[in-house]
Specification:
Crp/Fnr family transcriptional regulator; single chain; cNMP-bd_dom_sf; RmlC-like_jellyroll; four-stranded antiparallel β-sheet
Length: about 190
């Protein structure tokens, strides 16, 4: 978990003891390119730290995949709907590259939050960030053109075209692959 401290420092400063206690609850898991960290229909009880690699979150409807999010390590991900509602998730998380991953029992994380204010602040800041990112995406789908969503995505992550297949980018933007090709041609990205 070499990037864990760097990642958490982006949100909050924790004591060395808090950082150590938090790291101790994470266990490595093996995830290779195109493997799923978890799939729709499973009950998720863990929080994940993606140390390195690229992942996509997607949902299936009538056999069609709808990419909802890209995750670039280092980052933390929790499938809160499944964890909180004790229901199967409708989300799939798939690795798009070889990666380093860790998981921690969500209840163990919550226990640490009770007694360690730095850990509590970290997760408050993470949840704020997740909320703001989600609202930004919703608003973008309401007011931005497809081309603007594309240029904003490239501006936020210039290397995404090297790391993520175009069909997943098209799905994330809510366009068909041929529409993405036209947008890219108009932006001279091809």
């Amino acid at each position: 978990m070499e990037n864990f401290k760097m990642f958490t420092t982006n949100f909050v400063e924790m004591s060395e003891n808090e950082l150590s206690l938090l790291q101790e609850v994470f266990q490595p898991i093996k995830v290779k390119k195109m493997d799923h960290v978890f799939s729709a229909g499973s009950y998720v009880t863990e929080l994940f730290f993606f140390d390195s690699g690229v992942f996509r979150a997607y949902a299936l409807k009538d056999g069609e995949e709808f990419t909802t999010k890209f995750l670039f390590g280092p980052t933390i991900y929790a499938e809160l709907f499944s964890i909180r509602k004790h229901q199967p998730t409708f989300i799939n998380i798939q690795a798009l590259s070889d990666c380093e991953c860790y998981k921690a029992n969500f209840i163990a994380i919550e226990r640490l939050m009770i007694h360690h204010p730095g850990i509590r602040r970290l997760f408050l800041k993470l949840y704020e960030n997740i909320y703001m990112t989600g609202v930004k995406r919703q608003v973008s789908f309401m007011i931005d053109s497809q081309a603007k969503r594309y240029t904003d995505l490239i501006a936020e992550n210039p290397k995404i075209l090297e790391q993520v297949p175009l069909q997943y980018i098209a799905s994330f933007l809510g366009v068909k692959p041929e529409t993405l090709s036209r947008i890219r041609k108009n932006n001279n990205d091809i």
